[in-house]
Amino acid sequence: MTQASTANKRYEEQFNELAGGNSAPDWLVALRRKGMDSFARHGFPTARRGNEAWKYTNVAPIAAATFDHGSTIVADVTLDSIKEVAPWDDDWTTLVFINGRYSDDLSGSSANGSTQAGNLASLVRSSGTSVQSRLGSLVDAEGDGFAALNTAFTDDGAFIHVPDGAQMERPIHLLFVSTDGQRPFVTYPRVLVVAGKRGKATIIESYVGIGQNEYFTDSVAELIVEEEAEVEHYRLLAESDAAYHVGTARVEQADGSLFSSRAFYGGVGLGRHDLGLTINGSECHSDLSGLYVTSGAQHVDAFVNIDHTKPYSSSRLYYKGILSGRSRAVFGGTVYVREGAIKTDAQQSDKNLLLSLDAEIDTKPALFIWADDVKCGHGATAGSVNAEALFYMRSRGVDLETASKLIIYGFATEIIDTVTVPGLKNYLERTILESLPAHSFEF
Q: What is the SS3 assignment for 346-412?
């Protein structure tokens, strides 16, 4: 038996333990079983030949490792220790999850106007009908080993429901914290967001690590944006440098809806986020942007797909990367314009700043168009800083290292400045500036 198949066997054993000790409703038991059966058939996507989606990211270390279930980890975490590493604002509605489990003691009040926000484990029972009809409706567990595994172990997470016509009074922050453990462990955060017709919501989804031990986060998020709803979504990855993180997110927009996404990737050993957006309505707009800052031996993969299925909609996809050391980043941005999706306006771009000869970026923007009368474009760049910009700052008396850092930070601010939540923007400005390498450009 191979090392990978031994690890897969361990997941099956953990699944049986969960099934035997959890009084879940029948529909959730069936959903979990479907996920486990799919994972048993397909496993992890370790074969990259002929598998374009995973061509540049090797997940063999995850497949070969043995992880304990996060529920077995006993953690003694204080709110002060969380605030040291995570964005925090007392004006937000914050739901805190420690090693995959909701913590009522560390979370703030969930009251946020008429919006329902709470932990999935309890709402599955108290709001079973609304959760049952939506959970698993966007993520296909059959076609993705990581999504299948998360579905098999779906137990706790966050459920947010914005009623028709409702507007959140303040942002909702979903904070997933991983701590140190005696042995490597895995958690399965699950997020379900339903924004009703003409509803408005701001959601922050953060993954942070306390400590430096090895662990694996396998997350899945589903966001349903109904007619004329507006959702502003932020995703922050600031885990341990020894952590593995694979996230899957699916978003669906209905007629006249607006969806914006801001993704920030920092601390992680091996990280990937698979974001799929389906524009399933007319006169929609989506605005997706992201910033990845990598150093050392980090590997970050941003895999983004936008699917225009209806006419008269627009999308913007704009990512930037700053790479140093021996780090590697992957950007795969694909826009599909289906037959009949006339008057689509889709633009995408990926720009990268390489600070080391050993850093590597694999970027592949792509367009697939089956409709006439559309306006679409894409592009990608990678390189170092403009020598004239550095010369200008040096001529004003700024030393080489400071000038270099200011130029690097200036490259990042184009994405940071799009953040409309003050507390989050301040956190990002501080942490990204602190994470930038001490670098001196030379020409």
A: EEEEEEEEECCCCCEEEEEEEEEECCCCCEEEEEEEEECCCHHHHHHHHHCCCCHHHHHHHHHHHHH
Question: 55-102 pLDDT, tens per residue?
Answer: 999 999 999 999 999 888 878 889 999 999 999 999 999 999 999 999
Span 210-240, pLDDT tens digits: 988 899 999 999 999 999 999 999 999 999 8
Q: Which of 281, 299, 319 is the last residue of a domain?
A: 281
Beta carbons of 253 and 279 less than 8 angstroms apart: yes
Round to whole Å and give the CA distance between 220 and 154. Answer: 9
151 within 8 A of 31, measured Cβ to Cβ: yes
Q: Report the distance separating Cα 424 and Cα 432, nearest Å.
A: 12
Q: How far apart are CA 60 and CA 308, in angstroms?
A: 33
Residue 366 lies in a domain: no
Here the tokens at position 435 are 């994470």
Report the number of distinct structural domains present in the chain. Answer: 2
Give me the DSSP letters along 69-85.
EGGG------HHHHHTT
Domain-embedded: residue 293: no
Domain that holds residue 414: 386-443
User: Can you give the pTM of this predicted structure?
Assistant: 0.94
The last residue of one of the domains, among 263, 281, 299, is: 281
